[in-house]
């Protein structure tokens, strides 16, 4: 006669393995019994029954006794299961504070994705087009952009941005790296010589960079009125016609 399948599932749900549940239920029904009868009742090989009993005895669910030369086994009452659960609950409550101190999942960590080579850098530009706001803030030296991703890619990219009605900032600043800010992301694209870029996904960091960007935007001047290293703006290839510096 097979043991109760529903009870097997219930015992598994409170921590017993499938064969442990089978043998414990078989022992409950048989009372004082031996290996042979347990194996037949639970429909499990004798060698396996021996191994399972070694696990059930430390749990206090099976007690072994010897009568003459025969070993017999008897299942502890179901109350023992409840006691075991209470003991486990007490243990969990005891170690819970220490476990919480080790747990870092409550802290939201920034995600940093690294990209290499021309294809990798192009991927960053394409990811910036996925923003739902249709707006990306760029600090974008046009010469460096063409150098890293190629003039043809840049032309197609600008056409795509215009077609999808993205806000398009005019070129201007002459610095080695490009920076883009959108959604909860900040991208930095290095020079062709270094050939790398990365995207930081962090709400707080993006908010900080957006504040800096807006501050620069609000204090920006036309290129002709900027003074970098006391250079004469008349000697620059860029003039006031290039509109504002930070865009």
Low confidence ranges:
168-172, 230-247
CATH superfamily of the largest domain: Endonuclease Chain A
Order of helices and strands: HHHHEEHEHEHHEEEH
CATH topology type of the largest domain = Endonuclease, Chain A
Question: What is the terminal separation in angstroms?
Answer: 81 Å
Radius of gyration: 35 Å
- With strands numbered from the N-terminus, the spatial order across the biggest sheet is 3-7-6-5-4
Structural class: alpha+beta
SS element count, helices: 9
Strand content: 5-15%
Helix content: 40-55%
Largest beta sheet, briefly?
A: 5 strands, antiparallel
Structural shape: elongated
Mean pLDDT: 77
Number of domains: 2
Observed structural traits:
single chain, five-stranded antiparallel beta sheet, Arc Repressor Mutant, subunit A, two-stranded antiparallel sheet, alpha+beta, 2 domains, 247 residues, Endonuclease, Chain A
Characterize the structure shown.
The protein has 247 residues and is of the alpha+beta class. The protein folds into two domains: 5-77, Winged helix-like DNA-binding domain superfamily/Winged helix DNA-binding domain (Arc Repressor Mutant, subunit A), CATH 1.10.10; 111-242, 2-Layer Sandwich (Endonuclease, Chain A), CATH 3.30.870.10. The chain has nine helices and seven strands, in the order H-H-H-H-E-E-H-E-H-E-H-H-E-E-E-H. The protein has helices at residues 5-13, 18-30, 35-42, 46-56, 79-102, 117-128, 142-149, 151-163, 203-219, and strands at residues 62-67, 70-75, 111-116, 137-139, 178-182, 185-189, 196-201. The strands form two sheets. It has a five-stranded antiparallel β-sheet with strand order 3-7-6-5-4, sandwiched between helices. Strand 1 (62-67) and strand 2 (70-75) form a beta hairpin. The longest helix has 24 residues, at 79-102. The chain is elongated. The relative contact order is 0.08. Mean pLDDT is 77; it is low at 168-172 and 230-247.
